[in-house]
Amino acid sequence: MTEPPRPPGAGDPGFPPDPTAPSGVPGHAGSGDPTAPLSGAPGPGNHPPPGDYPPPTGDQPPSGGYPPPGDYPPPGGFPPPGGYGPPGAGYPAGGGYGPPTGGYASNDDKNWALIAHFGGAVGVIVGGGLLGWLAPLIALMARGQQSPTARAHAVAALNFQLTWMIVGVLSWVVTLITCGVLFFVPMLVWLVPLIFGIVGGVKANEGVLYRYPMTYGFTR
Length: 220
Known about the structure:
By secondary structure, this protein is an all-alpha fold. The protein is 37% helix and 0% strand. It has helices at residues 107-126, 134-143, 148-177, 184-205. The longest helix is centred in the C-terminal third of the chain and has 30 residues, at 148-177. The chain is elongated, with a radius of gyration of 59 Å. The relative contact order is 0.09.
């Protein structure tokens, strides 16, 4: 039998392959490039062929890591205006404090307290520093049994004046021994019960029991 004719270059020795031959010729992929991969085969570098990526689904978050618009909670986490109570609701109304007191149950207590302190200062002046104890003793005897407040003021003034009366006596002794050379010592001693007696009277007028310094407790 006679063999059908072959196309040029289809296997005849001595003829190079025809680059324009149909795709059915072995060794050609129809694109003219003998190294082109077949359809569906991975391309160079193990990358998938073009067109094989899945379409976007719309569930991916936008760039930057922020949630899509509309996912924020609605405003209202803060209390609405007007949530505070009426002005002054948390504070006591005016007049909650009582009237200031003078520290005395009656005017008689205050008067005898003033006599004990100011009278001691007067006794220092009149008695040459030796009679400051007289007025506090009278106040103690006259009002001390009826009022603890008056007694406390009288006792404080009496102990102070008795202490400095003794110091005054010693100062006179020193003056006599020195034949009057230290005559100024009794004067300095007089100033102490005089000044502190006035201070005690001012504090007593304010309703405060004054604690005399440099005092020995002879009575309670």
